[in-house]
Amino acid sequence: TDGPARVVIDLDLPGATISRHLYGHFAEHLGRCIYGGFYVGEDSEIPNTRGIRDDVVEALRALHIPNLRWPGGCFADDYHWRDGIGPREDRPRMVNSHWGDIVEDNSFGTHEFMDLVELLGTEAYVNGNVGSGTVAEMSDWIEYLTRADDSPMASLRRENGRDEPWTVPFFGIGNEAWGCGGNMRAEDYAALARQYATYVRDHGGNRVTRIAAGANVDDYAWTEALMRAATNLERRDGAAGPYQAISLHYYTMTGPWEDKGDATDFSDEEWYLTLSRAARAEELVARHATVMDHYDPHKKVGLVFDEWGTWWNVEPGTNPGFLYQQNTVRDALVAGIHFDGFHRHADRLLMANIAQTVNVLQAMILTDPESGALVLTPTYHVFAMNAAHQDARALAAHVLLPEEVTEVDGRPLPRVSASASLREEEDAALVSLSNLDASAPRTLVLDLRGREVTGHEATVLTGASTAAHNTPEQPDAVAPAPLTDVREHERGLEITLPPHSFATVRLQLG
Ligand code: AHR
């Protein structure tokens, strides 16, 4: 189009509700995510509540995190929940064979996790073990967690100090069954998923969404096999069955598996390659959703993107099995791009979980192993700035650019990414904008139609370079700041975004 870039939004045409669960999280027994990240033990000098770090809880409460997935990941299919209950000194040990081949002492188990969930004010997504666990073990776990009466498992929970049952709305039927979760073929796993899910019962008032272990990246045949198996059965309560959702995993990286790229040392070429690969996430969601539409046009079965984010080479000198990486402005824009795509597919996407919350992969929080100092990452700030999209209604945001859009890695990469949502009850809208250009600012017009706009408040997140990041010495090198370059325009607002930046604009509507 001619003229400046435009982002056109019809404020009076709300679409699907963006589930708050698209802003979900993931905490695995991996590296320093649980131990040292969330959990330091009661005797730690770091302020804690029953061993759980107070500063981590406080930082995550500010994000309103809607759910937390645990205990894995690959760890989930090695995990036997009975090892993690009862007096800590009596708990058996195990080998965490996937992540550093270290010995796990099971000091953080079911009670500690549910305590964390309660401290965070979030909801539990417990991932069960299909790869090396039994149907009875899975059945007992949900009974232990959620049953109120004097059943065997409810009584055992009480013996371990918890009277009231917990609420567990989400339960994973294994993880990555095509790989670390058992190296299964799609049809074989689909049969097991039906069987295991059957025994993950709704006890009392607890209603579980059972999530079958879904596809790796673009394995559409896997999704198809699970969909074929899912819609054969109708549960008595009318929900689709025997599982109500199917997952998807996809990570953004620039290199091959053996050399995924560095978190902080990258060229402009790698910058654009990263952002293009982040944009692939939406393509994958769209294509898996299309497969699901064929079997389930009324969208009873949800898509759960329960592992997403960047996966870089570990920081020099750290354990290769611990997946500890820095987090820059580039990671922030990867998150912004994912959320824009998620909002556009809110009709099928039930949940998404970034991997992982603390000290692992694309984390919100990094903690120093020596001093314990906590740093909030650029990705944390994107979650904070986007929080008002949770449970709002998606609005289409059409990006019209004056320049020709070029391809990167075989896919068009517009240099602006955007999405928007409406909170009807507050007469407010939120617009998210990313300037993907590594070095040029971008002036754009927010072309706002259908409702009167009576006020605005804009916030921007950027850093001195594309690789800017936060450290204990410089915790605010990348931090949100008011965006002042906003002017009234005959069509709405004219905004200038700095290079490599993410911004949000809150609109008050008349
Ligand atoms: O998030 C790290 C690992 O990535 C998970 O354990 C596994 O599910 C995936 O391969």
Tell me about the biggest sheet? 8 strands, parallel, barrel
**Strand order of the main beta sheet, please?**
2-5-8-9-10-13-14-15
CATH architecture field of the largest domain: Alpha-Beta Barrel
| The level-1 CATH class of the largest domain | Alpha Beta
Mean pLDDT: 96
Radius of gyration: 23 Å
What share of the residues lie within helices?
A: 10-25%
List cofactors, ions and other ligands: alpha-L-arabinofuranose
Sequence-ordered SSE layout with sheet pairings:
Blueprint: E1 5-10, E2 24-26, E3 48-49, E4 52-53, H1 54-61, E5 67-70, E6 94-96, E7 102-104, H2 110-120, E8 123-127, H3 135-146, H4 152-159, E9 170-173, H5 186-198, E10 209-216, H6 220-230, E11 233-234, E12 240-241, E13 245-252, H7 268-295, E14 302-310, H8 329-344, E15 349-355, E16 365-367, E17 374-376, H9 378-385, E18 393-395, E19 397-400, E20 407-408, E21 411-412, E22 416-423, E23 428-435, E24 442-449, E25 453-461, E26 481-482, E27 486-489, E28 492-497, E29 501-509
Parallel strand pairs: 1-24, 2-5, 2-15, 5-8, 8-9, 9-10, 10-13, 13-14, 14-15
Antiparallel strand pairs: 1-19, 3-4, 6-7, 11-12, 16-17, 18-22, 20-21, 22-23, 23-29, 24-28, 25-26, 25-29, 27-28
Helix pairs in contact: 3-4, 5-6, 6-7, 7-8, 8-9
Written overview of the protein:
With 510 residues, the protein is an alpha/beta fold. It folds into 2 domains: 5-11 and 394-509, Golgi alpha-mannosidase II (Immunoglobulin-like); 20-391, Alpha-Beta Barrel (TIM Barrel), CATH 3.20.20.80. The chain has helices at residues 54-61, 110-120, 135-146, 152-159, 186-198, 220-230, 268-295, 329-344, 378-385; strands at 5-10, 24-26, 48-49, 52-53, 67-70, 94-96, 102-104, 123-127, 170-173, 209-216, 233-234, 240-241, 245-252, 302-310, 349-355, 365-367, 374-376, 393-395, 397-400, 407-408, 411-412, 416-423, 428-435, 442-449, 453-461, 481-482, 486-489, 492-497, 501-509. The strands form 8 sheets. Strands 2-5-8-9-10-13-14-15 form an 8-stranded parallel β-barrel, surrounded by 5 helices. Strand 11 (233-234) and strand 12 (240-241) form a beta hairpin. Helix 3 (135-146) crosses helix 4 (152-159), helix 6 (220-230) packs parallel to helix 7 and helix 7 runs parallel beside helix 8 (329-344). The protein is globular. The two termini are 30 Å apart. The structure holds alpha-L-arabinofuranose.
